[in-house]
Design a protein that fits this description.
126 residues, mainly alpha, Cytochrome Bc1 Complex, Chain D, domain 2, two-stranded antiparallel sheet, 7 helices, 60% helix, elongated, transmembrane, iron, metal ion binding
Length: 126
């Protein structure tokens, strides 16, 4: 038994590093589950500092695309916001050399952010 202990420790260590560096989607969805709503999306936008690069609801920086415009454009082309959903899920999968960090968002966090962006775009259009 003692002979296999280092191997077991190594396996556990590898799993811990893998889940920390590049957590699988099922793990993110289990550990970062939220109730999707515009209010939760607003909290997540603040938590992840999205306005540090993006303009949302007329506020924020202009270093990256204005998300009000992106949401409006995607709404007309694709009501499911497929492109934006992919960006939020894994930015480097959409554009390998992007400056946008991967926040390792769960699917419910993504839905909450999309709901918030939609409400902000609708308010800006009024």
């Amino acid at each position: 038994m003692k002979r296999y202990a280092p191997l077991g420790i190594l396996v556990v260590l590898i799993l811990v590093v893998w889940f920390w560096v590049s957590p699988p989607r099922f793990w993110l969805n289990m550990t970062k589950r939220v109730a999707p709503s515009p209010e939760v999306g607003a909290q997540l936008v603040e938590k992840y500092g999205c306005r540090g690069c993006h303009t949302i609801g007329g506020q924020g920086a202009i270093l990256a695309p204005n998300l009000d415009q992106v949401v409006r454009r995607n709404k007309e082309e694709d009501p499911a916001f497929v492109t934006l959903r992919l960006w939020l899920r894994d930015p480097t999968a959409v554009k390998p050399n992007t400056a946008m960090p991967n926040f390792k968002l769960s699917d419910t966090e993504i839905e909450a952010i999309l709901q918030y962006l939609q409400t902000q775009a609708e308010q800006a259009a009024e």
